[in-house]
Design brief:
By secondary structure, this protein is of the alpha+beta class. The chain has seven helices and nine strands.
Amino acid sequence: MQTPTLSRGRSKLSAEDATTLAAYGARTTWPSNFQIYQRATDAGGISVVLRGYVVLRNRAKNGRSFVPAIVVPGETFGIEGLSPEAMYVTDAFASDETETLFVSSSQFRAFVRENPAQAIHVIAQLMSERAALLEKLNAMASQNVEQRLACALRRLAADRSFLAKDGRLRLELKHHRLLCEMVGATRESIALALGRLVASGVAERKGAVFLFAPKRLVEHINADSMDSDGALPIVREPARPQRTG
């Protein structure tokens, strides 16, 4: 498994740690778009992506959905299964053919007891992923659509399955729905933001395909973050009328 080069605050399990953990779990290969588990069902352990990627999705009442995380090789999902009487808080779908490792909560405890050094690395991985979710929550509250889109693209660039042969991130029409769910925006807003990235030289468009150089994308995100203080708008409440008499 490769170490990340683009993710900020994100890490991946090393091959050694993943191999040690694999002795305590079971590997499964899922077909494309297969639902691995459903929200509000019993969560009995932790999973690691070995190949492909997993989409975690929350569905809203209006038929729309939101993707809090894309889980790529070397990262975990379903960690709520490590807590007592836990329930899954999202749906999980395999995108393309995906291979995962599932370790039950009892087997994970055995792994921690018998491999404390590797256990520290795995727990650090879980904390890194939690920090990334908190960072995304801040982005949803403080960034505009284009800023959130650029961060989502950087996230996708961390997985080989989204890269073209020349190493650039390749975005096709089939990925637009996923982007909408990751960014929390409409298809029209995503299309406008992609157009602005092309105009600024961050992306190149070839027909219906958008191509992004990962390094140029990171430079754009870093420059944008320096230009913006990222502060939440503060709304002054109207003064309450004083009571008389």
